[in-house]
Amino acid sequence: MALRPVLQFPDPRLKRRSLAVAEITDEIRELAQDMIDVMYDEPGIGLAAPQVGEAIRLVVMDMDWTDEEGEKSPRVIVNPEILEREGSITWSEGCLSVPDFQSEVERAERVRVRYTDLDGNEFTEECEELRAVCFQHEVDHLDGVLFIDRISRLKRSLYAKRRKKMLKLEEEEGGAQSGAV
Ligand code: NI
């Protein structure tokens, strides 16, 4: 089956605030599996439901796996909440929904998070550094916030302009291709 496409900036669906998952249904389980497949295919270390067009508070993550090596151990995170934030850290971030761009973002260095899994078990955990950054990045997605909303206005507008040009080029190429068929 075809993988779900990842929505990309400036798709307005990425700006929506997502709703809590009220009940774990078969549809939610299927969506989580679809998201895991997309995450490994891209590849990425995390993916939030709004990135595949579903405005619900569901995230998948696997920070121990890379394209090259490592065991896959995907985690499905339902209704994550950040309970506490501490310290600050600057990390170079990228996002599957923000093509061809990376930038340093300042976030909390340590966070305490609460979420449930697909069986309804509740977890509270403390995480730091990459894990903390990833949690904050993904929860941002659920609130309609992209990492480029957390960089300077100048950097963001330069990227937005470049992205516009990229899209125009893609459109022109697409047009030429369809014209040739
Ligand atoms: Ni992202």
The CATH topology assignment is: Peptide Deformylase
Please state the CA-atom Rg, rounded to the nearest Å. 17 Å
Biggest sheet details: 5 strands, antiparallel
How many separate structural domains? 1
Number of strands: 7
**In terms of structural class, how would the helical and strand content be classed?**
alpha+beta
- The percentage of residues in β strands lies in 25-35%
Classified by CATH, the class is Alpha Beta
Structural overview:
- The chain is of the alpha+beta class.
- It has a single domain, classed as Peptide Deformylase, CATH 3.90.45.
- The chain is built from three helices and seven strands.
- The strands form two sheets. It has a five-stranded antiparallel β-sheet with strand order 1-2-3-6-7.
- It is globular.
- The two termini are 26 Å apart.
- 26% of the residues are buried.
- Bound molecules: nickel (II) ion (NI).
- Nickel (II) ion is lined by residues 95-97, 137, 141.
Please describe the topology of this protein.
Blueprint: H1 26-41, E1 46-48, E2 58-61, E3 75-86, E4 89-95, E5 98-107, E6 110-116, E7 122-128, H2 129-142, H3 153-180
Antiparallel strand pairs: 1-2, 2-3, 3-6, 4-5, 6-7
The structure holds nickel (II) ion (NI).
Nickel (II) ion binds at residues 95-97, 137, 141.
In short:
With 181 residues, the chain is an alpha+beta fold. Helices cover 32% and strands 28% of the residues. The protein has 3 helices and 7 strands, in the order αβββββββαα.
